[in-house]
Amino acid sequence: MKTIRKKVGLPPGSLIFTGKQHADKVRIDIIDYDPGQINELNTENIEHCFPYKDSPTNTWIDIKGVHDADQISKVGEHFDIHPLVLEDILNTNQRPKIEVFDHYIFIVLRMLSYNEEKNIVDSEQVSFIIGRNYVISLQEKEDDIFEPLRERLRKGKGRIRTMGADYLAYAILDVITDNYFLMLEKLGEQMEAFEEKLLKGPDQETLKQLYVLKRENLLLRKSVWPLREVIMQLERSESPLIKKKTSPFLRDLYDHIIQIIDTVETHRDMTAGLIELYLTSNSSRMNEIMKVLTIIATIFIPLTFIAGVYGMNFANMPELEWPWAYFALLLVMLVIGAGMLLYFRKKKWL
What we know:
By secondary structure, the protein is α+β, with helices and mostly antiparallel strands. The chain has 8 helices and 7 strands; from the N terminus they run αβββααββββααααα. Strands 2-1-3-7-6-5-4 form a 7-stranded mixed beta sheet, with helices on both faces.
């Protein structure tokens, strides 16, 4: 919030990082390739990626760490990126969107990964600049989910080395989308575990975990719903940067997004159902407790009446002089209590 306050009153396009810094340094991974060869470069000098702007080969420039506004500004100046786009890159709370310019396409979305240690979903913003022969990806963190894609590029598997930068952008988006399926699978397993817990006996900790699960589903929903519009606009774009032979792959990616949205909505309903099941189970348990306590109180009402009558200490009470009166009274109380218990059981109140 403090960094956001710094932007108040500044003109549009002011480059100030407004997120949480996840990387110590800005690291750049460059993969330059064509059908016959591939070259990789790992560097911390942003200027090393400049020569690839007009390279005849295809280049993937992966920038990890967007906290350094000066470095991002240098990228914008060299690749002729609009200042408002650079501002969106530095503001890591953007809603997924797409903007089409004359010589590049800007895409921003959320990349999700599952934290096995904490059993939560980690989220970060990823921005893309898609040019004629290059793709620039800008991530908040050093760790990512793109290593399988890098291996495909290194080994030349599939058509990725023979296609252009637009197909590379599709491949990156496809990896992110596939990871959404992984998130949904993990969340589905959590829901099954919570359902078993609720049936065995819910507790307060389970309710807290259910609300964490609900928040994670909400995060997925906010990440996926706008992505549908992004992919649709990308596929229908008349930009020369998106070639016709890439369109079928984008349509397939759009179908995957629709499938994810349906699953997210199903999970959302299931989470609401689990919370309702928790509340219903607690209510049912409380009703059972109240029923037992009510039955106990009901049994003691006549016993308390009898004890109250013979505890008034009136002088003219003939039963008090009978030697067996105490034991007889206890027997009467026992018979009344047992009779009431049998009656309640017959009525199936117990």
